[in-house]
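Table S5 (text form). Sequence records supplied for joint modeling of the two-component complex.
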Amino acid sequence: MARDDDGKARIGKIVIVGGGTAGWMTAAGLAAVLGDSGVSIALVESAEIGTVGVGEATVPHIRHFNARLGLDEADFMRRTQATFKLGIEFRDWGRKGDSYIHPFGGFGQPIGGVAFHHHWLRARQRGEAADLEAYSLPIIAARTGRFAPPSPDPRALASTFAYAYQFDAGLYAAYLRTYAEARGVVRTEGRIRDVTLRGEDGFIEAVVLESGERIEGDLFIDCSGFRGLLIEQALKTGYEDWTRWLPCDRAAAVPCEAVEPPGPYTRATSDEAGWRWRIPLQHRVGNGYVYCSGYISDDEAAKVLLEKLDGRPQADPRFLRFTTGRRRRQWNRNCVAIGLASGFLEPLESTSIHLIQVAITTLLEMFPDQSCAQADQDEYNRVMDLEFERIRDFLVLHYHATQRDDSPFWRDKAAAPIPDSLSYKMALFRERGMVVKYRDGFFLEPSWLAVYLGQNIMPQGYDPMTDAIDPKDSARLLGELQAAVARTAQAMPSHEAYIARFCDARGAA
Amino acid sequence: MTALPLGRVAIIGGGVEGWMTAAGLARATGGRASLRLVETGPGPRGALSTLPSLRSFHALLGLDEAALMAATQATFKLGTRFSGWTPGTSFCNAFGELGASLEGVGFHHYWTRLQQAGGAPPLDDFNLAAVMARSGRFSPPASDPRSPLATLAYGLHMDAGAYVAVLRDLATRRGVAVSHGAVGEVLRRETGDIAAVILAGGERIEADLFVDCTGAEARLIGSEPFEDWSSLLPANRSLRLRAEVRRDAPALTEIEAAAEGWRWRIPLRDGVESGLTYRQDLTDDETALKAARTGLPKHGLSDPEVTPLRNGRRTRSMAGNCVAIGTSAGVVEAMDAADLHLVQSGVTRLIALFPRPGDAAVAAAEYNRLGEETLLRVRDLAITHYRLGQRTDGALWALGRNGPVPEPLAYRLAQFESRGRVVMYDEETFLEPHWIATLIGHGLLPRRYDPLADRMPLEKTRAMLERMRLIFRQTAESLPTHAAALAGLAP
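The corresponding structure-token record, covering 1000 residues in total, follows.
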């Protein structure tokens, strides 16, 4: 076996436990990078164990992942019934009847060195501003059901957004399975009966299947879902519970028939004990209700979900239980947990697949040798902890910044404590319209702006430097941008027409 | 006098810090604030060595770079050469990229692999700016992204007094009023806010916001507690002088360690600035002067100027209606030339968080959080030089090497040593290539490299690195000399 200069043996075999989106994304991601380096990759899954597959909506980073794999975009979209996604519409979050879109793109350019939104805030105070949406191309395109990929010309308004996909996560997993198997990943069907640990250091030595087959490895990836077969059941890593901040603990999911062409955005509608998602794919609409079991029963939740579908349900609702939080160590000994085994954050901002992707990327950056050096584990865990915490704060904001008081759930949520890291950010926004920026962490300024303003957190003031620019000048620039956004959106094809031309799934195998 | 919407700002202290603040605020407030600067003493002497980021500040101010350079005797700066920190060694901390990452794996992992497999050429050979500087060349970055010159960046060497004159001219033309006189008395309200500053001549300066640019004296912010870093960074004094020599120097700042301390050389068009940073109880000023003069001609030297240096920071740099910018807020000895960057980041942060009645507390909390993070990361790089150097000929070096290492730096060093991982925190002044060049330059070689670098056969890695090295050398040799680039500037 190859050894590096430390005398530490290189990883020869990786065992991924669990298929599903996390398992096959990991298998494909590792195979794409390690494929020709002599590392063998095995994946164990059982067809008897269903996969969760709630994450059907993604964020734009997925395009980097697909590009690294070298996937053909049109082919991938056809085979996963994918549609394009320009953002998420939030309905009834601030108040009942409200609607705003969190877009994958910004709101205008700085004017005179001062961020656009301060000019908007001032113009609004003066009664000279349109709704914030009017200054965002991806929002107007989404609202009018249009889509075209961003322009490569960085000076063009049409370059100021990004896009993601809405797809069938089960089909995506299957697509990646084909990809991974073609690159040497060996899939074994079977349920795991036992996990054996090495005496001297507690590393995982092998998993034993019910068939008696024993699969040994140097590095184990736990993609077994909530139960954490390796990371928790075998290694007793521990879990940090975040339900005091994000109390929803169940979801019901059901697909239904589409009754209209798919929109280029996901919808999250708040409901009496949580919120419902709606994700339009080419062939159907994915739906679900994320709720808090303390406020509504499973039966009632299913009833609400079914009542509010667009079209006929295509199956009975499936129920999921979860505890929001994260594993105390995402990487423990020679085991890395990816996907739901690593922790759970509700899919309000479509971050489930994103977290899988960050985990894979970070694992490749910190790819270990057989010793799984503590330093490598520490750095991986530091990076993933930051990622989880910063997404958590952004999710909590949605619940906290609400004026809904029409149900016990929302009354309790508005009064519930929030992490200090979030109250700090909110104070800066409330008082000055300032968004706290970080080097790491997924959600950038436009995302925070969209949610703050969309949920009626209106700053008391704007950046005082705005006043160095004549309000007439900014009003003129705002007007020009609004007109350009409307014009550019109108020139885009409809989302439906673009899909039909580019990646129509009808007729795909 | 009618009240302006952004109120009255008094900047106490001229010098580079005061005038950068004045020029920045004059530009950002666009006549909506009443700005006054108090020159509390004579203007600065000495030379400045800056990071590329300062150029964006100049762009914000609308300064024409060629004119600025002509006025300030400026030369270009492609980086800093450190020598003697471990006897007999030197390395260049040049701006721009280090090599090129290949197949998603950072360049320094391939370099480390080659190093472990029997030896690699010096890391400097793979930084185009370092190769250019070494061969006395210069080029601004190319706009064509495919050119190897596209990733270049540069800073400037300038005469401090002339730089102040340029900023002063700009700021006063944009309406900054000037008063003169030392600070006599600072009058405070019951809340602790400053009501007025009385100058030695009796003039009373009232304002809504006071900016403390009085340097180490910290005349306004001095009531805030000071966090002392002398156990982390042992130097406490510096001495400077100017030699009037004309010679075609490379586009580099030189930072050379000697037994007494570290010596700097900053090339200007009409001379060279030299100085020594040292520790008073170990080296007297006379010895320091001798060390600073090493290698300079005997004649044409200015009188030396000695300045105390106290590494550390105010626990709050914005407090009440007072904000400290520059050395009044915090000091890190300047071997990495971050001093003007810290001023610049203070000014831009003040613009972004300009306090108003009512929200000053929230603005101050964020101002201080960002300022602290920024300063601590710069401090950690300074500590790194002392920590990793291997000199045994002076008590200063033993103090520096054996001092405590703050936790975030200890983690960063451990990660790099373990597997060449470059940890980056939220508010970094220096980019990854800068950290890599510093760590490897001081001899901290990673024990392991990214195993993904092994996907490329060793011989192919060797050939690629050799080719890259050749391209950099040929590219550098095809460029004009630094002197020619300076002569070609049309002011």
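Note: Chain B touches chain A through 40 residues (CB under 8 Å).
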